[in-house]
Write a structure and sequence with these properties.
The complex is a heterodimer of chains A (317) and B (638). By secondary structure, chain A is an all-alpha fold. Chain A contains 13 helices and no strands. Helices cover 71% and strands 2% of the residues of chain B. Chain B has 25 helices and 4 strands. The chains are: A mainly alpha (317), B mainly alpha (638).
Chain lengths: 317, 638
């Protein structure tokens, strides 16, 4: 019975199916909102589903210069590591598998999909991919510094007796008792920093230096086609869900209502709002940054925001 | 019988090297079998010691020539093997054996191989003797042996560019380090009139540190730091690792710098018992952080595969040092775990560099490319090593780094010190930069366009591949079963590192410390609680289940047709161009891959480049100046 329940967790909720559906929905909402902000009609909200299934039916071409095995394996590994991450991120009181991975592990697990894009791009042998992965790498280094500081800040704030914690369970317990992180004023700069980290972690528009389809033809994805490209698009959508859910767990967590369905609906609402705030809004109002500008932005402004919170929390606020 | 195993294992390495001098010059077969045999014997002997020492917790003491202490005064030379020594000894013998097997084929195109194996076994004997020794002066002797063997091996391929220069630099800086150690030994001997580590430890603990002993201690510390290549003693390591044959680079990074780390741990925890002072913790952690940050940023801008690995080696040693300097139970355990992992994955990566050199004849990142199609197994092995060193879960590098971050952040909370929170941030950041620079190697060497000159590359022979596979498997296993590794290797070793009383009593007779007025309690307890959780097996199971589910569903969908493969005609119009120029001239080559990052930090990088001038005078100056700072700091604050 336990095995069946675990399989249900892994494959349906909150695992593969749930992630995929919610992720694609979020991607659809994002596209619609951006379009409306730019006074376009925009595609229907289910457009990403159509795109995904269309790509699955298309021919998959593997370039001559590509290293075949890695080229095929990379998107799959990225997808699997993303979905596995969803099992560890709590939905208010509910976590599918608690006690497996903590905050630091999640930080590292988040680099696996990025590494998968990079390795897959590298394996395609295209020079556009070469440029793309060099930019992706710089982007990772750029956003990782503020992300590290944000997570450490949460880890310090959520510990009760002056210690530290990296455990999601304790972070939820703290928020259930003292109100969500966002209601503590010292955590607000960290939350803003996290909101700014999300779009570049996802690779959405103002920070999509690596994919930049107008300059370098989608960089690492340039040689991908058919179902493999479809999987990359799915990864992108799931990443939107994972990161917004992570934001919800870290900053807007708590005990929830105790009824799973209500909690999930609440989570979806938070995810949508965070998506609109952190991804659609910057997407609609700004042009793509150059890679060195992006690096500077993250290592100065965003890092300073995160450090302000860290210092405040360490001073006991 | 079993108490003779430590000395026998040291002797077999030295004996092997002498036998190769006598018999190895003529016949290839005799030479190779002698080398493998005499590197396998210590492996077997040291493995026999795992049961009594690591599991049952015994401490072996062995007085050479049966010169036991007379009325509480150690006059003979002793070997003392506790769990810490054995932990490092295991790393040493494993590295020697695998490097010897790898060398058989890898070095087969060089000549004068009898001299190579002689020096190689001599180097191994030196390091093994150092970690098993219980005598301060004996440790110095072993340091000298290993330094000079290393210098000669660095220059072994003296037809190669820069190898003599590298050996000369190593000679100069290494000799300065050895001189510091010798001076330190003299000063300590003048104060306490004994050379046995156990007795020095007991006497210093009862009499307290005087300015003279602190001076000696600082010199010893700096000397062993030189052997571990921590900043500011590191630049010679980059040259030496690059020009030495890869099997030797593996030995350097797998065990020679561990010897330095072992010396430092032994000195600060056991002999001088200085780790309870926060000044000592600060200086070690600061040196460690500098080492890991400068190491990794220098690695970002390297053009040469092995030179890049060398800087990473420096950087990872920084992690070990930082963790050890935290002086908490979790810190020591994390540090030792990382030392073990570093031996495995860095040895593996150097062997991969060796395999590439063997097939293509170059380690220049700008000249290599597309080898994944030619050397698929080496590529997989390299990726395992690269993921391990960058700390991607579930590989071993992640496990130890995770322990180190927790240790550092817990320490910060415990002491209310913001400094250690910064240490945690530096550690996490360095890990990302490590990933970045390994992506660069992966892209430049194994993937991307097949570079001219790489067309004829072939997979390396089996005798080179299996040591690589073995280490790759060990990397995965030590990452997946941290509980096992912790219980049987790391925790006994960390407990031994702080168990001063046990060490003294085993050597000098039970109750020796108490006679002098030492209290039997140890300074630190080894109980620690993790603030987070990480269960690699559960993660892997979930991962595999999901992957299997996905494969099945995809396999059903795609079974009807395979991908289309069309031959590409050899015509320049099918060549790849980027922005109007050939791809090797665009900004995607080895050194420019991180343009966005280097452009923003150009002042820092410019400064670092000017500091790493390549002039041996500068490096010698750094060494002396660094030592002066350490001495000053210790005398002022200890």
């Amino acid at each position: 019975m336990q095995i069946l329940l675990d399989l249900f967790y892994v494959l349906i909720f909150p695992g593969f199916l749930f992630c995929a559906v919610v992720g694609l929905l979020l991607a659809g909402i994002d596209r619609k909102i951006v379009a409306r902000m730019q006074k376009r009609m925009g595609p229907p909200i289910v457009q990403p589903f159509y795109d995904f299934f269309k790509l699955l039916g298309k021919e998959t071409i593997i370039p001559h210069a590509a290293s075949r095995g890695v080229f095929i394996a990379a998107p799959l590994l990225g997808l699997v590591s993303l979905v596995v991450m969803a099992l560890f991120i709590p939905v208010f009181g509910f976590t599918a598998f608690s006690g497996v991975a903590d905050l630091i592990v999640i930080l590292y697990l988040l680099t696996i999909p990025a590494a998968a894009i990079i390795v897959g791009g590298a394996a395609s042998g295209s020079p556009y991919a070469g440029v793309g992965i060099s930019r992706e790498m710089v982007a990772i280094v750029a956003y990782e510094l503020p992300l590290i500081i944000v997570l450490l800040t949460v880890g310090k704030k959520a510990a009760l007796d002056g210690g530290i914690t990296f455990s999601f369970t304790e972070i939820q317990a703290y928020q259930a008792e003292f109100g969500s992180m966002l209601s503590h004023w010292s955590m607000i700069p960290a939350a803003v920093a996290m909101l700014l980290v999300i779009p570049s972690e996802v690779g959405s528009h103002p920070f999509d230096v690596a994919e930049a389809e107008t300059e370098i033809c989608e960089g690492p994805l340039v040689e991908y086609s058919g179902s493999l490209l479809g999987i990359y698009k799915l990864n992108h959508a799931i990443k939107m869900f994972i990161l917004t859910a992570l934001f919800a767990a870290l900053f807007l967590g708590g005990a929830g209502s105790g009824i799973l369905i209500v909690d999930v609906l609440l989570l979806l609402l938070i995810c949508t709002v965070v998506t609109i705030l952190s991804m659609s809004l910057p997407h609609a109002i700004s042009a793509r940054l150059k890679v060195e500008k992006m690096f500077k932005f993250y290592w100065t402004l965003v890092t300073v925001l995160a450090v302000i919170s860290l210092v405040l929390v360490w001073m006991g606020f | 019988m079993i108490q003779h195993f430590p000395i026998l294992s040291i002797m077999s390495l030295f004996l092997g090297s002498f036998l190769i001098v006598i018999f190895g010059g003529k016949n290839r077969f005799i030479r190779n079998s002698l080398a493998v045999l005499f590197s396998a014997i210590p492996l077997v002997l040291i493995c026999c010691l795992i049961k009594p020492i690591l599991i049952d917790g015994e401490i072996f003491s062995y007085w050479m020539g049966d010169w036991e202490p007379v009325s509480g005064f150690a006059i003979g030379i002793g070997l003392e093997v506790d769990a810490l020594s054995l932990f490092f000894a295991l790393l040493v013998v494993l590295t020697i054996f695998l490097a010897a097997v790898f060398s058989l084929k890898y070095m087969s195109r060089d000549d004068a191989l009898d001299k190579y194996y002689t020096l190689f076994l001599m180097l191994g004997g030196g390091v093994l003797g150092l970690v098993l020794s219980g005598d301060l002066f004996n440790m110095y002797i072993m340091v000298e042996i290993l330094t000079f063997a290393s210098v000669a091996l660095t220059a072994f391929r003296n037809w190669g560019k820069g190898s003599l220069e590298a050996a000369f630099k190593y000679l100069v800086v290494g000799s300065i380090g050895s001189a510091f150690i010798l001076t330190g030994v003299i000063l300590i001997y003048a104060q306490v009139h004994t050379l046995s580590l156990a007795q020095i430890s007991a006497l210093l603990a009862t009499e307290g540190l005087t300015p003279a002993t602190i001076f000696g201690f600082a010199l010893l510390f700096a000397g062993y730091a030189t052997k571990a290549y921590i900043v500011p003693f590191h630049p010679v390591a980059a040259d030496a690792y690059m020009t030495a044959p890869s099997s030797i680079s593996m030995v350097f990074s797998g065990m020679v710098n561990k010897a330095g780390i072992y010396g430092m741990i032994r000195l600060v925890y056991m002999v001088f018992q200085a780790m309870s002072q926060s000044a000592m913790q600060y200086i070690i952690v600061i040196l460690g952080c500098l080492t890991m940050f400068i190491g990794v940023t220098m690695a970002l801008s390297q053009h040469d595969f092995k030179r890049l690995l060398a800087f990473h080696s420096i950087s990872q040693i920084g992690y070990v040092l930082t963790a050890v300097g935290l002086a908490t139970a979790l810190g020591i355990s994390g540090g030792l775990y990382h030392a073990l992992n570093h031996t495995l994955f860095k040895g593996l990566l150097f062997l991969c560099a060796g395999a590439v050199f063997y097939s293509v004849g170059s380690t220049d990142l700008d000249k290599l490319g597309g080898l994944a199609k030619k050397m698929p197994q080496t590529t997989i092995i390299f990726l395992i090593g690269a993921f391990s060193i960058s700390g991607l879960p579930p590989f071993n590098g992640f496990m130890s780094k995770w322990m180190i971050y927790q240790a550092a952040y817990e320490k910060a909370a415990l002491e209310g010190s913001f400094f250690y929170a910064l240490v945690t941030i530096v550690g996490l950041l360095v890990s990302v930069l490590t990933l970045a620079s390994f992506i660069k190697v992966t892209q430049s060497v194994f993937f991307g366009q097949l570079a001219p000159g790489c067309e004829k590359a072939k997979e390396v022979p089996f005798s080179m591949r299996w040591p690589m596979w073995l280490m790759a498997i060990l990397c995965v296993l030590t990452g997946l079963f941290p509980g096992f590794v912790n219980r049987y290797l790391v925790v006994p070793a960390s407990a031994a590192a702080i168990d001063t009383t046990g060490y003294i009593d085993a050597m000098m007779g039970a109750g020796y410390g108490q006679q002098l007025g030492l209290s039997p309690e140890t300074a630190l307890s080894l109980e620690y609680e993790l603030t987070g959780y990480w269960d690699p097996i559960a993660w892997l199971v979930l991962f595999v289940v999901l992957l299997a589910g996905l494969m099945i569903s995809l396999g059903l969908g795609k079974a009807s047709r395979g991908p289309v493969r069309r031959p590409v005609p050899a015509d320049p119009k099918y060549d790849t161009f980027f922005g109007g120029e050939a791809s090797q001239h665009s900004h995607v080559g080895g050194s420019d891959l991180f343009w966005g990052l280097k452009h923003n930090l150009r002042h820092y990088f410019r400064f670092m480049h000017s500091m790493h001038s390549g002039v041996v005078n500068d490096y010698a100056l750094w060494t002396v100046a660094g030592t002066a700072v350490i001495i000053l700091f210790m005398i002022l604050f200890l």
